Amino acid sequence: MNRTTAFSASLAVLCCAAVPARAADEDVQLWITESVSEPLSSATQGTLDLSQRFRENGNQLLTRGTVEFRLSPNAVIGGGAAYVSTIGAADEVRPHQQLTLTFGALTLRTRTEQRFFEGADRMELRLRQRIGVALPVAHRLKAGLAGELLYIAQSEDSDRDAHVDQWRANATLTRGLGGHLEGTLGYLAILSPRNGGPDKLSHVVQVSLSLRR
Asked: How many of the other CB atoms lie within 10 Å of CB of 139?
């Protein structure tokens, strides 16, 4: 797949995810993320993420560990778990499994999450499908575009049916900072559909540092 095709596919998803169907409540958030990735063997990679999320409806601290195994030059399978602490809300334990396919500049990721909230009726099952593209724009600088659908197949509330949880659209710039360190500045739009009321649209400023060995 050439760069033009990859860019067009990702841009199409990005545009669809970013356009709300009706008026939405809006807020602004800041996410700061630190990530360390280390090879565990010739075909296995371990990653630890720490994310501080400053939000109007309760700040969050997310800690996630992931182990991935390369099946082929184009396919990586993995899994892990996250612990999410939210001010003013129930904490969450979130195991996940994922498959990532890469075709040149284009990346497809399918992730399944089992979400356990304190005091919830049952486990919530969330499915996530992401498509993204990353292209070099200058020396040690690359741009990324991505769109993602988050779908609740089983809600934590036994009285609620399956539904779309979020649409996400993401634009990033990543620069090599020397050695194995990268810095990323991004904008993430999160559209959360709501029944019986205006949708929620969150504008997220992203700042991250990644150490990849």
From this structure: 7
**What residues does each domain of the chain span?**
3-29+88-212
| pTM for the structure as a whole | 0.88
Neighbours of 22 (CB within 10 A): 9
The rounded distance, in Å, linking the Cα atoms of 83 and 62 is 6
Tell me the C-alpha distance between 64 and 34, whole Å.
Answer: 11
pLDDT at 126 over 70: yes
As assigned by CATH, the class of the 3-29+88-212 domain is: mainly beta
**What residues have CB less than 8 Å from 88, skipping those under 6 apart?**
57, 58
Distance CA 16, CA 31 (A): 23
List the structure tokens of 140.
Answer: 């040690």
The tokens for 27 are: 């807020």
pLDDT of residue 18: 46
Hey, what's the torsion of the CAs at 52, 55, 59, 65, to 10 degrees?
Answer: -40
pLDDT at residue number 213: 87
Residue 75 identity = A
Query: Is residue 184 within 8 Å of residue 178, measured between CB atoms?
Result: no
Report pLDDT for 143: 98
Residue 153 to residue 123: CA distance in whole angstroms: 11
CA gap 202, 193 in Å, rounded: 11
DSSP 152: E
Among 142, 90, 146, which Cα is nearest to 115's? 90
